[in-house]
Amino acid sequence: MKESPHRDPKIRRRGVADAYVDGRMALGHAAFSLHDFMKESGLSAIAAKRQLARLDGKVVRVSPRQAFFLIVSPELRAMGAPPAAAWLHDYFNWLGRPYYLALQSAAGSFGSNPQALQVTQVMTDRPCRPIKVGRIQVRFFVKRRIGQTQLQQLPQAAAPLWISTPEATVFDLIRYSSRLGGIERVAETITPLLPQLRPSELKRVLESENESACAQRLGFVVEASGAKTLAKTIYDWLPEKLLPVPLSPLKGPRANVPVVQRWQVLNNSGELK
Length: 273
Fold this sequence. Notes:
By secondary structure, this protein is an alpha+beta fold. It has eleven helices and twelve strands. It has helices spanning about 10, 15-25, 35-40, 45-55, 90-95, 105-110, 165-175, 185-190, 200-210, 210-225, 230-235; strands spanning about 30-35, 60-65, 65-70, 100, 120-125, 130-135, 135-140, 150-155, 160-165, 245, 260, 265. The strands form four sheets. A four-stranded mixed beta sheet has the order 4-5-7-6. Strands 1-3-2 form a three-stranded antiparallel beta sheet. A three-stranded mixed beta sheet has the order 10-12-11.
């Protein structure tokens, strides 16, 4: 007597990828690793990849070289991938590396959106290739002492996500200004954040970062924006003797550039006074 086809393990395993992905979505997850899928399903690597390949856009690899998959729910099919904020935490846990939402992306989460930003900016501890999956783009910045950055969880986020505090965000914006369109553009992003900054937390950031040149530039920008209390917090932290620094490292020093004595900043911007 022939065995019932429903007892054939190969037949029983058909559709296990679809069920696994639906289960992940039901729990609010937007991503998973091939290893986790294999562990739960009992499938081999080849069988697991074959089943995932048959899901027709329901899942997509974060990059061709990495066995990490994003779940694309029906309402996100036009985007080709879920928003980066929905899966970055799981992705970096899988990599085993630190990260946080940073710079203009962090500023946007706190309500400062002077320029439309099409790329999610993420800080990590060593170089990463940019990610582009569907319409979602992620650009990575490197910070060697990332563990010293003041972080918090993104409020009201659908998934866990580390983000720099407002105080750490403005410091990072100054530090990476030459890669963000220049000091003028960064100042436009910082100004709307100033009412959210707390002097005590700003002092903690200055102490942990311990970069006088960046603090001088930040002090100048903050004072130029009219935030006198915050500017005093920065000034009080700085050492007594300061070395002159150009406001815009990208432009470099120029002849006849005025020096702002309080901050020892060479104002080579032309737009910031």
